[in-house]
Write a structure and sequence with these properties.
Elements: H1 2-7, H2 16-26, H3 33-42, E1 47-51, E2 54-59, E3 62-67, E4 73-78
Antiparallel strand pairs: 1-2, 2-3, 3-4
Length: 81
């Protein structure tokens, strides 16, 4: 249920390497990666799905991958358009 991710939005985090990977993949100047992710996840246009052990959030031109058990953001990829 997508509400599980939204209810636990304050648990979203990433590792130092994850933050570097996200910055590289997003190609935007982001001052706070975690706040950027939380804003995308909580956006009313976000499509949230859980597949296996991960949450996938599709929003704008991005797909955000978040581990479902510990809320660690694994990566963000641009969608292939």
């Amino acid at each position: 249920n997508e509400n599980d991710l939204l209810k636990n939005i304050n648990k979203i985090h990433t590792t130092e390497l994850g933050e570097k990977r996200i910055r590289k993949n997003v190609l935007e100047d982001i001052s706070d990666v975690i706040e950027w992710i939380k804003n995308k996840v909580s956006d009313s246009n976000a499509i949230i799905s859980k597949i296996g052990k991960n949450w996938y959030v599709s929003i704008d031109y991005y797909i955000i991958t978040i581990n479902a058990s510990n809320y660690c953001t694994i990566t963000v990829h641009k969608k292939n358009l």
